[in-house]
């Protein structure tokens, strides 16, 4: 029997734009909100929007990863629910387990589901039981020389290249492409060390590398009453270092493949006993459209916005309702993805310098775009100092058009209108992509950045409006025009 519990106050166990995004939906629902923050985030925008803000430590990062501190902050504030956002503790199965012990509602999947799906080897076994196609791979490699032998044997059987993957990996970390046996011998111990550092778990498995593939995912919602629905697909193929840069909804696939991949995602969620919002990720052969299960992310995704702007479904709102024990009330015929949506992650990075972060710089001028079909999810403002301690994401911009051509036109216009002076950003990089012929035709896969090096040759020249805006900002700051004499 499902117990219904009405949530009154939500503590957001995260930071930055996702914390602000969750706070906004909670306020729409009439809920009180509590933000937690480390000292480097003292000037962050999300703190100002919450009803209460609690300092949880000096940081950096370690306090956002401290379950005991989160439980303490929840009790101190009187909150009765926690939303983990994404990253940090969102996929740590111990977090919902401790929430349950403390009588706190966790807005996300149960701990056993996160634990099973968080281990990629166990997740593959779950999907195998449902006859869901998945990429050939090994179990966790043995820890000694036997593990090396297992990796070599698999790689020789299926052929190079192969992928080394952390069993507890996520967010693009713990993944290494291996081209030959000598490379394998070098990369395997490095992969183990990276997995131990990032996930406190040095288990590694080997997977066949599917080249010229597309990364397609399906958004899932599931409640405690056995209802599971999908909200369509997203194409997340354009990535750097296995981390997504630009996401598109829906994926451009033949209709029969779309139906098959969506049905498979629902089957995967049912097989795993999934609850809340989640994402089933697949690799799709760019030529044949054959697809394989890759993993299931047990949290809200960074790119959930492209699904929301097409479907009109507030995924965070549905997460909260599901956590309260409510039944999903979104009929299948309502899920109509009209048009095309694109999200770009505007990061404080220098794409021409291997996407080097620009932490430590200050945003001297910030002018955001607007107009039809534009959504912004961010935390940046004029005068904002970019922390060196956290990720480089400043703002996510999602645009919607009635077709692919209009979506690109709108994206390009919005990028031209977007002005951030101070740090280097990914804005000119995305403008170069908008003009690239294959992208305009919708032809891309996970190797896109490698096969299109020309997109990194964009001009560095500062636009006249940027120079003017910098001058205006300087005049306001110093109360004097340095060029007036």
In short:
The chain is an alpha+beta fold and 485 residues long.
Question: Your description of this structure?
Answer:
The chain is an alpha+beta fold and 485 residues long. It has 16 helices and 20 strands. Among the domains are: 99 residues, Rossmann fold; 73 residues, ATP-grasp fold, A domain (Dna Ligase, domain 1, 2-Layer Sandwich); 147 residues, D-amino Acid Aminotransferase, Chain A, domain 1 (2-Layer Sandwich), CATH 3.30.470.20. Helix 7 crosses helix 8 and helix 12 packs antiparallel against helix 13. The longest helix is centred in the middle third of the chain and has 19 residues. The model has no long low-confidence stretch (mean pLDDT 92).
Describe the secondary-structure layout.
Layout: E1 9-12, H1 16-28, E2 32-38, H2 45-49, E3 52-57, H3 67-77, E4 81-83, H4 94-101, E5 105-106, H5 111-118, H6 120-129, H7 145-158, E6 162-166, E7 175-178, H8 181-199, E8 204-208, E9 213-222, E10 228-240, E11 243-249, H9 255-272, E12 276-285, E13 291-297, H10 304-311, H11 315-323, E14 340-347, E15 349-350, E16 356-357, E17 365-367, E18 374-378, E19 393-401, H12 404-417, E20 419-421, H13 427-434, H14 437-440, H15 448-451, H16 464-478
Parallel strand pairs: 1-2, 1-4, 2-3, 4-5
Antiparallel strand pairs: 6-7, 6-8, 9-10, 9-12, 10-11, 11-14, 12-13, 14-19, 15-16, 17-20, 18-19
Helix pairs in contact: 7-8, 12-13
């Amino acid at each position: 029997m499902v117990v219904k519990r009405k949530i009154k106050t939500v503590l957001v166990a995260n930071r930055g734009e996702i914390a602000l995004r969750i706070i906004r939906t909670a306020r729409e629902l009439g809920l009180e909100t509590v933000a937690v923050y480390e000292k480097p985030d003292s000037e962050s925008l999300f703190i100002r929007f919450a009803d209460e803000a609690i300092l949880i430590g000096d940081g950096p990062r370690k306090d956002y990863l401290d379950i005991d501190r989160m439980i303490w902050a929840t009790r101190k504030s009187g909150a009765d629910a926690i939303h983990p956002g994404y990253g940090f503790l969102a996929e740590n199965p111990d977090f919902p387990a401790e929430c349950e012990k403390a009588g706190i509602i966790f807005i996300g999947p149960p701990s056993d589901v996160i634990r099973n799906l968080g281990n990629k080897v166990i997740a593959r076994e779950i999907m195998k039981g449902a006859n869901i196609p998945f990429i050939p791979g090994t179990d966790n490699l043995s820890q000694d020389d036997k593990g090396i032998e297992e990796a070599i044997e698999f790689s020789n059987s299926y052929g190079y290249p192969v992928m080394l993957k952390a069993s507890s990996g996520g967010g693009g970390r713990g993944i290494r492409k291996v081209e030959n046996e000598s490379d394998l011998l070098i990369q395997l111990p490095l992969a183990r060390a990276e997995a131990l550092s990032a996930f406190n778990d040095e288990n590694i498995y080997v997977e066949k590398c599917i080249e010229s593939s597309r990364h397609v995912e399906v958004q899932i919602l599931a409640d405690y009453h056995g209802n599971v629905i999908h909200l369509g697909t997203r194409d997340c193929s354009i990535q750097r270092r296995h981390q997504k840069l630009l996401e598109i909804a829906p994926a451009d696939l033949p209709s029969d493949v779309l139906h098959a991949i969506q049905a498979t995602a629902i089957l995967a969620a049912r097989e795993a006993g999934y609850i809340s919002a989640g994402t089933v990720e697949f690799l799709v052969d760019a030529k044949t459209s054959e697809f394989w299960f890759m993993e299931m992310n047990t949290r809200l995704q960074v790119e959930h916005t492209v699904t929301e702007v097409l479907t009109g479904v507030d995924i965070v709102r549905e997460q909260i309702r599901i956590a309260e024990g409510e039944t999903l009330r979104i009929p299948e015929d309502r899920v109509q993805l009209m048009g095309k949506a694109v999200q770009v992650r505007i990061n404080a990075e220098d794409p021409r310098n291997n996407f080097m972060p620009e932490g430590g710089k200050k945003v001297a001028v910030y002018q955001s775009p607007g107009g039809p079909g534009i959504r912004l999810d961010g935390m940046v403002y004029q005068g904002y100092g970019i922390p060196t301690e956290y990720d480089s994401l400043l703002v996510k911009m999602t645009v919607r058009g009635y077709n692919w051509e209009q979506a690109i036109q709108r994206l390009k216009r919005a990028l031209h209108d977007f002005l951030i002076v101070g740090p280097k950003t990914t804005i000119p990089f995305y403008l170069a992509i908008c003009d690239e012929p294959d992208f305009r035709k919708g032809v891309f896969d996970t190797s896109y950045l490698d096969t299109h090096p020309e997109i990194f040759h964009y001009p560095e020249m500062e636009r006249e409006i940027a120079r003017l805006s910098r001058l205006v900002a300087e005049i306001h700051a110093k109360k004097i025009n340095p060029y007036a004499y």
